[in-house]
Amino acid sequence: MELKDSVQFIKGVGGKRAELFKKLGIVTVRDLLFFFPRTYEDWSKICTIADAAIGDFCCIRAIADRKPIEQRIRKGLTIYKTNATDGTGILKITIFNSKFTAQKIEEGKEYLFFGRISGSLWQKEMNTPSVEKSERNDRIRPIYRQTESLSSKIIEKAVANAIDSCIDIIPESLPQYIMDKYYLCSIRDAIKNIHFPIDSDYASLARRRLIFEELLTLSLGLRLMGSVKRKKASLSVVNDCSDSFVKSLPFTLTASQSDAIKTISEDMSESIPMNRLLQGDVGSGKTVVAAAAVYNAVKNGFQAVFMAPTEILATQHYNTLCKMFENHGITPELLTGSTKLSDKRRIISQLANGETGVVVGTHAVLSDNVTFNNLGLVITDEQHRFGVEQRAVLGKKGNNPHVLVMSATPIPRTLALMIYGDLDISVLKELPKGRKPVQTFFVTSNKRERALNFVKQHLDKGLQGYVVCPLVEDGELDLISAESYAETLKSGVFKDYSVGLLHGKMNSRDKDRVMQDFYSGKLQLLVSTTVIEVGVDVPNAVIMVIENAERFGLSQLHQLRGRIGRGTEESTCILISDASNPEARQRLNTMVKTTDGFKIADEDLRMRGPGDFFGTKQHGLPDLQIANMLTDSHLLSEAASAAQEILSNDPSLSDDIHKGLRRNVIRLFSGITGGTMN
Ligand code: ADP
Ligand code: MG
Fold first, then answer.
1. Quick one: pLDDT at residue 231?
2. What does pTM read for this prediction?
3. CATH top-level class of 1-41+146-170
């Protein structure tokens, strides 16, 4: 058998299943071997019910009290309930929609139950556990991304068979000198241990090798493609006019704002286009820095585009710019999906003939019929929501315009360099004077009522607030879903208040309407998922309650919290969580202790929080199988220096020992470049 053979020839797969595997992107034997587990279940450590910590994944050996009782909740949702005991306590078991699992369980028999512990210290629960007969041998089990008709177990068997028959034909792609220098295990050991680790140390060694290889490939590819070729800029600021703009502002700039404005003016007076990332924590005042750059561009006779990821944000920036430019003879235009057709026509023609100096907008600005007379500056806010391709489109509309990217995400420098190429970074280190840091508390759910009453007191004073719930995953009925929670609040505690709901599944028009109602004060309380994370400024919103706070990454909590504390009132953030594991509690306590976004991001990285707000897809970079660019940033810098070392000896990867690396690069980038690498 060869690695490029169809997966159907693996024992236990066959033609029919091969079709199902295809849905997971697995076509060849190689694809299967490189389809890594999403996570593991450690069935090797049995925990007693008494010792099982709430929030943790545990394996419990216990006797079922009875056959699970079936309950039809509604159409499409049937649950099965039973209790299990192990002499130290009783565990309530609930199985959602899986008759198959439920039927396995018989009264009086002993089983292994694996799942997340929920409930309370008095009544621990486990929802939708994996269930095995208790005599099954205990080991670390791989869990794969599954589809409806292809379970993790079937995949596991196929992988085991593939390893049996093919492990010895997997070629080593890394040169020996790199493996020696960076302490990497062989590819064959890595494949064996990523799927079936003997213990967690073996799993980490395998991960290290595979992540390193992937990041090395990414790094080599980006370097080989010469991702950045800077050409001459179209705009060169002759007169730095920012002073007159700054003087007109109603506040004094912070020192970092002044520095950033000065540096940007200098960048824009060069003949090479600026490519700068403006990083600053939420509320640090990035917009005014961007406005100064726009001002300079327009006063020097060039056009500027200011892009935001959502309509509401675009509208907000538009209003801000209108106000700031009021007495300077600059009239911004707003172009979004819901701009009236007649206005759209007028704006498009005025952009084409150069009458309009600055346009603020969403991706509508990227549409084909928008052209510019002399575009000189492109600004994008909350950049990580835009893809590389979109940036390329904007680049083409001007003649190498200057580019300023704003982000509140503290991206590690190595990562930023990789994503944005050869770029400079300005950081807004301090918040404007007079800001009161948000007071943060961490409480358990039995204080929920008090927390909500506290919210009420604020609403009664004419202030506004948020309640944030995490996304609900399938079968997790114990978690509060935003939708049902909003209903509960509306008809209960907050029945005399106006409550709005905002979640990711709503279409953008509805979302914008709700945001607008909240912005205008029509809604007093907004119940929401994390969609409010991205920057709308409602200074009157001063209180936020975050449910199941342990579910969020720290950086994400920080972004969320950034929605309040924007006015002159004292603001409060209440994190509700019943997580009992010490690590989760420590993470939440970090939020209580500090409001410094960079410290929080560091802590997040250190503790490998789950928050993946930084998916790679959005960057237009190739999909990574196993590496996470944010949490694996330490390996990223090692891989980047290895790439540099390799290419300095062999700039086109043509040596025989680099054959494998070359193959890797072509494979990883084939999807996005159409094979332009030579
Ligand atoms: P962010 O960096 O999160 O985008 P904004 O640019 O929205 O922050 O600024 C937040 C608020 O702070 C705005 O209302 C803005 O007018 C105000 N602001 C910005 N700079 C200063 C400053 N130097 N002094 C006082 N207020 C400021
Ligand atoms: Mg902002």
1. 61
2. 0.61
3. mainly alpha
Q: Pick from 284, 287, 381, 429 the residue to mutate for probing ligand 1's pocket: most ligand atoms within 8 Å of its CB.
A: 287
The closest residue, in CA terms, to atom 17 on ligand 1 is: 285
> pLDDT tens digits, residue range 356-391?
999 999 888 878 789 999 999 999 886 554 455 555
> Measured on CA atoms in the order 374, 377, 380, 381, is the torsion positive or negative?
negative
pLDDT of residue 49: 96
Q: Which two tokens stand for residue 415?
A: 């990562």
324 lines ligand 1 (CB under 6 A): no
pLDDT at residue 289 in the model: 97
Q: Which ligand is nearest to the CA of 534?
A: 2
Task: Provide the pLDDT for residue 610.
Answer: 29
Token look-up 């929030």 returns 55
Distance from the CA of 557 to the center of ligand 1, in angstroms?
Answer: 20
Fold of 242-428: Rossmann fold (3.40.50)
- Asked whether 537 lines ligand 1 (CB < 6 A), one says yes
CATH for 45-137 is: 2.40.50.140
Residue with the nearest Cα to atom 19 of ligand 1? 285
Asked if 372 and 242 count as a contact pair (C-beta separation under 8 A), the reply is no
Looking up tokens 């419990």 gives 60
CATH superfamily of 439-594: P-loop containing nucleotide triphosphate hydrolases (3.40.50.300)
How many Cβ atoms are within 10 Å of 479's Cβ, its own excluded? Answer: 17
pLDDT, position 35: 92
Sheet holding 541-546, edge to edge: 439-443, 572-576, 541-546, 464-468, 525-528, 499-502
Please indicate whether residue 432, judged by its CB atom, sits closer than 6 Å to ligand 1. Answer: yes
Which residue numbers in the chain have pLDDT < 50? Answer: 227-228, 385-386, 473-478, 608-620, 672-678
Q: Note the helical H segments in 170-310.
A: 176-181, 187-195, 200-224, 242-247, 255-269, 286-299
- The CA–CA distances, whole Å, from 597 to 499, 531, 557, 562 equal 30, 19, 10, 10
Return the pLDDT at 258.
Answer: 96
The residue to mutate among 249, 537, 564, having the most atoms of ligand 1 within 8 angstroms of its beta carbon, is 537
- Domain residue limits, the chain: 1-41+146-170, 45-137, 242-428, 439-594
Contacts of 368 (CB under 8 A, 6+ apart): none
Q: Is the C-beta atom of 283 inside 6 A of ligand 1?
A: yes
Q: Do domains 242-428 and 439-594 have the same CATH topology?
A: yes
